[in-house]
Every structure is written in C-alpha cells, then in structure tokens.
Design goal:
By secondary structure, the protein is of the alpha/beta class. It folds into 2 domains: about 1-290, Rossmann fold (3-Layer(aba) Sandwich); about 315-570, Alpha/Beta hydrolase fold, catalytic domain (Rossmann fold, 3-Layer(aba) Sandwich), CATH 3.40.50. The chain is about 30% helix and about 20% strand. The chain has a 10-stranded mixed sheet with strand order 1-2-3-4-6-5-7-8-9-10, with helices on both faces. The longest helix has 22 residues, at about 270-290. InterPro entries: AB_hydrolase_fold.
Length: about 575
C-alpha cells in the first residue's frame, strides 16, 4: 500500500509516500520520495524516478558524510540526476536515523538488519520493472565505499567511486565507525565484526577475497588526498594484486583513475563526475554486450571472468524441456569445468523468491558420468527455481567418485561458481539462495555461505574438512592426487593453496542436521562442526536431529524428509 505523507518535501520539493512493500512504488516518469520500514527501527528512504529515455541503465546514488545542518533523509545529487535521461534512485542511510548525532555510518545497519539486502531488493525490483540490464552505483567518500559494497552483489553493474574509504576502521582513526559499533553492535571488536559480517566493514576484504560478483569498478582517486591514498587506496590495490606498471590486477574489470583535483579530501567537480559516469556507462554496455549470449537488453544467466578470457570455449546443452529454459554447461578452465542444471518452477516458469541449489557427495561414475546433473534430494513438490551443481573435479578423472569440489591446482571453482549462482538468482529475481549440501559437499557450500548474507545453508551429516584418516581416506587421497598433482600431502595443499573452509557461519543462516549415532559423526563429526563454529566454542548450536532423516551416514536415504525441511524453512 502507498500512503501520501505530503505533497512537497520542504527541501527536495518532491511528493512523499510511506510504502509497505517495494512493489508499492510508482514506475513512471514522476519522481517521488518513498519511506519503507525495514526493521530495528530503521526507515529506508529513497528518491525514485523510474522513467528515462536511456532505460537500459539504472543510476543509483549513495551519499557519504553529512554536516550537522543537513536533515534526514539525505539524498545525493537529486537535482542533477533528475535532469538526465536515466532511471534514478538515491538512497538515504537509515542507520543515521538511529543516532541523530552521527554524521557518517556507511549504510552499516544493525546486527540483525543488513541495509544492503533492502537496497538490493529495491534496485532489483526497479531494474526489472524498467527493463534495465545494468546498474551504475555512484558515490564519493563514504558513498563511494557503499557503492563498492553494493555493486559487488550485481554481475552487470559498475561501482563508480570517488576517493572512497575501503575500510571503515581506517577512516580518521575509526572515530565514526567506533560510534556506530558502540551504539549498535554491542561494542564488538574490529576482528569480531569483520569475521561475523564479511564485506560489511571492509571492502578491501570483500574484493581481496574475490567474494564479489564479477562487477566492474571505476576507482577515481584525488592525488591531493594523502590520507585516502595511504590508508584506503594503497591497501585496496595491494589486496587485489594491482601492478602499477601494467595496470593489471586480480580483478578482471578494474580501472584506476588518478588525478590531482585539490589538496585534501573533497568531492570531484560535477563536470568530471559526469564524464566518468558516461565513460562507466559505455564500459558497462560493452561488457554486457560482450558477455551476454542473449539478445541486447536481456540479462545474462551466467557471467564469468573465464568466459571473457576464452570466448571460444564450447558450451554443452544439459537440459532442454518443452516450455522451459535450457541451461548450459560453461567451460571455464583447462583443468576443470563448471556446469549448472537449472530447472524452472511449474507453471509460467516466472520469478522466484528462492533459488534452491543442490550439491552432491559420492557418485557412481559409471551410472552417472560427469556432469552429474540430477540429485535424489531435488524436490518435485517445491515450486521454486532450482539448480544442480556437479563437482567439476570429477571432470579431471572419469573414474573419480568424490572430489570435494576442489577444482584444479590452478583453478578454485568458488569465484566462478559464486558468480554463476548469483547471476542465475539475479535472472529469476531470487532474493535468497538456499544451498543443500550433503556430507562432503558442506566444504564448498560453507565457503559460499561466507560470501554473502544472501546465502543460506542446509548441511546434511556434514563433513567440513579433508582427512586422510577413517573411511574416506582413499577418496581424499584420490581427489588430492587428481586436483593437486604437484603436492604430496594435505599439509602441502594447505601451505600452497588459499582455499580454506569458511571458519564462522551465522547460525541464523545455517541449519545442520546430523545422526548422532552415525559412526562418521561419532568419530569426527564434532570436530568438523567445531571448525566452522569456533566463535561458539565448537558447540552444536546450529545442529538438529531429525528422526529417520539418515540411515547411518547416507544423507540421500530419505529425500522426502529433506523436502519437508526445505518447505519448513522456505515458509518461515
């Protein structure tokens, strides 16, 4: 429902509405201010003008620090943006409304509410309604920081940031972030916050660990700003492996624009801002045209850095059903491949709130040669978009039965898998991605859960670590010998590779079901769970027992029970 508050805001001169849901906004040429309650006492306010001649690109503005005289809500560049021809959204930081004396809070939200989740929901709804195939997130200083963070959730987007912070704790000695933490995050330490909310307090961590979606970044830095050069740009470039001589980095789509604007920290001139905005729009359009196999204007299902690097790589049809969309296996590297089997819901195959992703553990390579594109756990009753992800490690050896989704020595499948799943979810409008991981598949699924609060994890009799002891020893040695032929032991792999399991998981986003009578759980299960639950002392806080769910350690024995668990969770 949309309720009128006032005909004209005192400063912005726009009509104001209170709305109950994102879908209550007007999708037309008229600009208005909308207020949406998102929980924990926060109101997300935003200006929206959904019309515009160049509606293939949505413009999203995020503000930085305000002065004490600026009243909330505070919106960036409303007048100038409403004069151009792009659909436009400007968000006001709802975190500031919880502390009237605070002037900067980077849209950090509260422990229970991630503001990015709500801004993402608004952006996806408006982009879908207007037909936009790409998004430019723009901001300066603190707004540039948030543009980096929010753009990381969208494959087809550019973060256009001007002299941004890249770590909230390194800005002015932490004076602003410490006020937010003291008042809203119960005084947690920097280390605790970065572990518990990955990517929220530091985009250096976000991009350095490749947990972004493969988005584009235009990083514009004022060379007269010594503090931001030293405390924010330099650590960010180091984290992404930036080579100053060549301009290359670990980020496939990164551009650094350094120029002297003025001494000290301040915004770029409006003319220069607009020039870089138009450059970024042109770059984004070329990127979408190059990476999308669909007609111009349609959003790609999959986007990966490897597809750009090897456009001649062959694609294989996996599933073609009457009235549904086909899914394609995408060849990503010489020593491995990633294939997804995507199935739409019944009926019109339309949008879905949740994308359900199924992984597998041991397979019979004779009965189910790679790619194994089905799952006995896949629900026929749940009317959601779903994906089965075969283990790409099995492509390296046709006799291998278990690969832990290790990939290959020169290829970690996590970044490409995360980009593919998020791209699939973007295409169908899914707000959350539910990972169903039996046994050893918990290793890759737990790493994905750490990428974003968008992911939920259902772990069934999980095995979270490789071990050369016990019944799985033969499988482990075979998998390591296949994926890492040049190393001789698990210890060597740990020293030479950077693929750790995710060490902390949010209990609210994870459900772990175990059979405490299983020999596997009795011998190593508690140890496995402690690995991802260190902050809670290795307790079984998130573990549950469901009678009849497992027969010993066989997680696929009762798929109807798993289906019931999924229904319960999706209906929560």
């Amino acid at each position: 429902m949309r309720r009128l508050i006032r005909e004209s805001h005192a400063f912005y001169k726009l009509t104001e509405y209170m709305i109950d849901d994102v879908a209550d906004v007007r999708i037309d040429d008229s600009a208005a201010i909308y207020h949406l309650a998102i929980g924990d006492g926060m109101i997300l306010s935003f200006v929206l003008r959904a019309g515009g001649e160049q509606n293939d690109v949505l413009r999203v503005a995020l503000h930085g620090a305000r002065t004490a005289k600026v009243k909330l809500p505070y919106f960036l560049r409303v007048s100038s943006s409403l004069q151009d021809s792009y659909p436009f959204i400007a968000f006001s930081d709802p975190t500031l409304g919880l502390d009237e004396g605070n002037l900067l809070s980077w849209y950090l939200g509260t422990p229970g509410i991630d503001v990015d989740d709500w801004m993402e929901k608004v952006v996806r709804y408006v982009a879908s309604a207007t037909g936009a195939s790409g998004v430019v997130f723009e901001g300066s200083s603190g707004g540039g920081y948030t543009s980096l963070r929010l753009s990381a959730r969208f494959v087809a987007s550019v973060a256009l940031c001007f002299s941004p912070q890249t770590d909230t704790f390194r800005y002015l000695g932490g004076v602003f972030v410490e006020r937010v933490v003291r008042n809203l995050f119960l005084g947690c330490s920097e280390r605790e916050l970065k572990a518990r909310y990955p990517g929220r307090f530091s985009v250096t961590d976000l991009y350095g660990e490749r947990m972004h979606r493969g988005n584009l970044v235009t990083y514009a830095q004022n060379d007269g700003d010594a503090e931001h050069l030293r405390d924010h740009l330099a650590p960010f470039l180091e984290a992404i492996g930036y080579d100053h001589a060549s301009g290359e980095s670990n980020l496939e789509n990164f551009r650094l624009v350094r120029e002297h604007i003025a001494e000290g920290h301040g915004p770029h001139p409006l003319k220069r801002w607009n020039e870089l905005f138009e450059d970024s729009v042109a770059w984004l359009r070329r990127h979408i045209a190059r990476t999308s196999p669909l007609p111009p204007g349609a959003e790609p299902m999959f986007t990966s850095e490897a597809e750009e690097a090897a456009p001649e790589a062959s694609k294989r049809e996996l599933v073609v059903e009457s009235g549904t969309e086909a899914a394609s296996g995408v060849s990503l590297a010489a020593d491995g491949r990633l294939a997804l089997n995507v199935r739409p819901p019944r009926g019109d195959g339309g949008r879905s709130e949740t994308l359900v992703v199924y992984f597998h553990s041991v397979v019979d390579p004779v009965a189910h040669p790679y790619p194994y594109v089905d799952s006995p756990l896949r629900s026929e009753r749940l009317n959601e978009w779903s994906v089965v992800v075969p283990d790409p490690t099995l492509a390296l050896d046709t006799t291998l039965r278990l690969g832990w989704y290790l990939g290959g020595e020169s290829w970690d499948p996590l970044p490409d898998l995360e980009a593919a799943l998020s791209g699939a979810a973007d295409r169908v409008g899914a707000r959350r991605i539910l990972l169903v991981a039996p046994s050893t598949a918990a290793l890759i699924a737990s790493r994905l859960v750490g990428c974003s609060s968008r992911y939920l994890g259902l772990f069934l009799a999980p095995v979270f670590a490789l071990s050369v002891e016990g019944s799985a020893a033969t499988f482990v040695r075979r998998a390591l010998a296949t994926a890492f032929p040049s190393v001789r032991s698990i210890e060597d792999v740990a020293r030479s590779d950077s693929r750790p399991i995710w060490k902390t998981l949010d209990a609210e986003r994870v459900r772990v079901f175990v059979n405490p009578e299983s020999p596997e759980w009795k011998t190593r299960g508690h140890h496995h769970f402690a690995l991802i639950n260190q902050d809670r002392g290795g307790s079984l806080l998130a573990a549950e027992v469901r009678e009849g769910l497992f027969a010993g350690h066989q997680t696929a024995a009762q798929p109807n029970q798993v289906e019931s668990i999924l229904e319960e969770w999706l209906n929560d």
